[in-house]
Give the backbone structure.
Amino acid sequence: MNYFDRFAIPNPSPAIYAAMVAIGLTVIAIVVGLTYFKKWGYIWREWLTTVDHKRIGIMYLVSALLMLFRGGVDALMMRAQTAIPDNALLDAQHYNEVFTTHGVVMIIFMAMPFIYALMNFVVPLQIGARDVAFPRLNALSFWLFFMGAMLLNISFVVGGSPDAGWTSYFPLAGNDFSQSVGTNYYMLSIQIAGIGTLISGINFITTILKMRAPGMKLMKMPMFTWTAFITNAIVVFAFPVLTVTLLMGTMDRLFGANFFTTTNGGMDMLWANLFWIWGHPEVYILILPAFGIYSEIISTFSRRNLYGYKSMVASIVIISFLSFLVWTHHFFTMGQGPLTNSIFAITTMAIAVPTGIKIFNWLFTMWKGKIKFTVPMLYAVGFIPIFTIGGVTGVMLGMASADYQYHNTMFLVAHFHYTIIPGVVFAMLAGLTYWWPKMFGFKLSERIGKWAFWFIAIGFNVTFFPMFFTGLNGQARRMYTYSEASGFGPLNLLSFGGALVLAAGFALIVYNVYYSTRYASRNIGSDPWDARTLEWATHSPVPSYNFATSPKVDSIEAFWDHKKNDYPLFKGEVEEIHMPNNSGIPFIMSCIFFVWGFSFVFSMWIPAIITTIAIFVLMAYRSFEKDDGHHISVKEIEETENKLRGGNK
Amino acid sequence: MSELFPRKQVMSFVFSLILTGVALTVYFLDMSFAIGMTILLITAFVQASVQLAVFMHAGETKDKGSIYLNIYYAFAIAIVTVLGTLLIMIWDM
């Protein structure tokens, strides 16, 4: 039995046992359901083995939404625990585990897949391509991310959750202070998901550089594609740092290396340094696609072309470079001298300039536009003032000397939620609502969507604004409780109330999906928003080959010209289309990666060696496999096109 | 036949070997740390450039511009990262 003792939870509680039962029941329900409805073949053929960028995008989307709710429940638990002084809902250990999981899940397993969901679905359509450059690698990216996410998500029922914060600073994350396997889970699950992200980065850069429709020069790409391109460039330069850092951390924890130890020549502060060399560009990996989404939405619903296209492109390029020059501002108080802090304070403030240019460009796009306040536009308009509060407090935090007062307080927590929630969550909800008709062929209800927006916008501000005050009064972040004498009680209770309103907003979104699936009109055509970019030029739902004939582009808004000025967008004849074949290998390989990660977490070397060999065998198999894809005949394309046209009366 | 002879590649290969030889002298000859490090750094970077330009054909297609742009960008970020880290962890600690 000793062998299995390692899987036990170090700090059990009734809630965790309840979660175990719930997970078990869910798995049983899925298996029974799939068997009962005879859907195994369907799931395997249409989803698990698919290489279609649209389906992979939808799978990313579903995973991101699931993780959003997982992370959201964690957030509610934290707010509930701190709602009143000296609360005993969670003990210190569980609180540590909850805020660690909340951070990791929200950044790595919610925000990242959400941006890749929209990039996957939209970018190939926006550039008029049939798929991404490497469809099978794309499937591998998704499944690696998914297995990484699952690995982290079983941690709290098998062996213990990570509890050293999402930044996992050493020496706290070292073996001396984090004795459970939790931090191993952190290292390996992010490693596996990170490999997937790196592959995606290469894939999308190649796609955007090589597969644009004829005539679409770089400076004629839609803004979302531009931001996707720059984002993936940042991914390719930043993620290798994370890979190596996590590897070094894993070596320290599993093999007794001394990279980040306090003895034997190790340097614990190097972890913080390396983590943020990746971590700060990561912030821009999250925010740039959001900027792209807002650009599309603001332009569409202001009925105007985007103001200052060239300055928009220039500012995202400058942001991407500056994002690599500011990482020290995450640890101004670590002990380096004033010279270093001054340099990084200046580079930090410099980022406000290109960001400000973008804000003004959006305002000028709306200026004298015929604005339609649809749900996506509400999020975009709501984003501007809320994000500006986040930006202004960011400049406050960026002043190194003042940061000694703010750092590690709730002020910081409020600041980064004020940037990430409007910057990422609002953008993703806006993008989701905006592209939903293209994905599923019907619109989400505007009425319920607007209710959800107001619940979320108000709930968000009520939750996080009080934290600016409690933070300035000295409430530290990551503390599981506080005394009544501190006086933090009332504002924290208000914050909990806001969190409940926020949660109600998300519940409304779920209800909206259910309601609209049942009742929304399917008779909306392929361009329900009267939009301007190429993804709206094909049918909804999009056929597997995207465009029957490749669009020819000669302006930034070729589709708009096509609608308003009779520009001939599709000139060519229908020809046979060459498409990639489905493959089960990405899924199987990622399952093996899951077992590989699990084996390393628990230092089980025999399965670790076997799975390592299996991964290399699958890679070798791929090298020798002959797979030329398949062709869709002209007749089949014409039948599909006729059917889709008939369906879109 | 002379135009078929890969003169550039052969000469570069010999040059690579010479660079390796020079780098090896750091181990065999007794020199100060500073001089040894200088030799290693210079030979390493020249070696890497030869490999990229000659054997990995960086400059031979019409993608030349984007390939070099990519390399220079990576170089700039690497320098910033390394110098920044030295500044934070050693020079200004």
Observations:
- The mean pLDDT of chain A is 92.
- The domain at 8-278 of chain A is CATH 1.20.210.10 (Cytochrome C Oxidase; Chain A).
